[in-house]
Amino acid sequence: MSGDGVPDRDVHVSIARGRLPVALAFVVALASCGGAGGTADGTVELKLGHVGAPGSLYDRTAVEFARRVAAESNGEVTVAVFGSSQLGGDETLLQKLKLGTIDLALPSTVMSSTIDQFGLFEMPYLVEDRAHMRRIEERVIWPTLAPLAETHGYRILAVWENGFRHVTNDVRPIVEPGDLAGIKLRTPSGVWRVKLFKALGANPTPMAYSEVFMALQTGVMDGQENPLAQIWGARLHEVQDYLSLTGHVYTPAFLTAGVGRWSRHPEDVRALVERVARDIQPWVYATADSLDAELLEALRGEGTAVNEADRARFLAASRTVYDEFSGTVEGGAELLEAARAAADTAAGAEGATSGTPGEEAGSGAGAAGDGSGAP
């Protein structure tokens, strides 16, 4: 069991051999000369690391993805999933992707510290709901951000979810920005998240997700901010009295590979894995939506005091963050314009809901996961 009270776990989905004959022949050759992912029996094994706790949206999504890859390939491709920061925090995982020592990771907030333009997803209340997020994916991520990530050595295979983030603490309910004054608040390592909470009056400190439970338990930190699925999965509610539904940021999660190692896998293996990764997104959003509603009630049932926050005041107090992003990040103003324009066509999209239980699509930001060793 790790220091944050979360049991370590790895999931290895492996099924009998079957299809992909062309890839199989190539993988056998790779295995004989130490190539990427080749195993002694000629199958391809992919190693996926993430920071989510058991039961979190990260965990559930990674396990479901591994199951589908194994089923679709008839066991020729397997995914070994290592959660709870077993392979390192998000920054370490990104380094390992570049070094080629792992195949896949699931970064979120940390991308904004690696590639400035990903700070788009650190802008408060930018993403209105999951329908809006899908439009941003189509109009911004695939045409602009994904190619940019590739120039930095990262290949984004799919866009999943970390979620709508909320503040917990053990001092007082957070209704408006003034309530954050003096609160020692853990954040992920993203530079824009720190800027946001400084603008809101808190005392933010970046910290690896694996260290958060102990920091809250010992009083080193007063509070933290995360999606409901990460709060519940890491049992942070056991050391926090108040949950304030700020919904201040929606953080996507990016299933990511290192360009070098990924290119050494057979083409049909890459195609299959990327297709499965993208096809799972509706399942991810549906699961996230259900978790938001279920976990909010579960947290109330555990005795957590839950309150709504005045989001209009939070947005007004954070305008300087938008101004700085637009003025200092190359292409920042254009990215914001494209993301905002996507909201016009997001309303009413099929199957989309906001992240706040009980709200309709298009009504505003809502509830559930993170990223630095992050959530």
Can you walk me through this structure?
The protein folds into two domains: 10-163 and 252-286, D-Maltodextrin-Binding Protein, domain 2, CATH 3.40.190.170; 166-250 and 290-346, D-Maltodextrin-Binding Protein, domain 2 (3-Layer(aba) Sandwich), CATH 3.40.190.170. It has a six-stranded mixed β-sheet, sandwiched between helices. A six-stranded mixed β-sheet has the order 8-7-9-6-10-12, sandwiched between helices. It has helices at residues 21-32, 57-72, 90-99, 111-114, 130-151, 191-199, 212-218, 228-233, 259-263, 267-279, 281-301, 311-317, 319-328, 332-346, and strands at residues 10-13, 44-49, 77-82, 104-105, 154-164, 166-169, 184-187, 203-206, 223-226, 242-245, 250-258, 305-308. Helices cover 42% and strands 17% of the residues. The chain has 14 helices and twelve strands. The chain is an alpha/beta fold and 375 residues long. The longest helix is centred in the middle third of the chain and has 22 residues, at 130-151.
The tally of domains stands at 2
| CATH architectural designation of the largest domain | 3-Layer(aba) Sandwich
Number of helices: 14
Sheet-strand content, in percent, reads 15-25%
Distance between the termini: 18 Å
Mean pLDDT: 87
Largest sheet: 6 strands, mixed
* CATH topology label of the largest domain: D-Maltodextrin-Binding Protein, domain 2
Low-confidence stretches: 1-34, 348-372
- The CATH first-level class of the largest domain comes to Alpha Beta
The count of strands amounts to 12
Q: Rounded to an integer, what's the Rg over CA atoms? A: 20 Å
Category from helices, strands and their pairing? alpha/beta
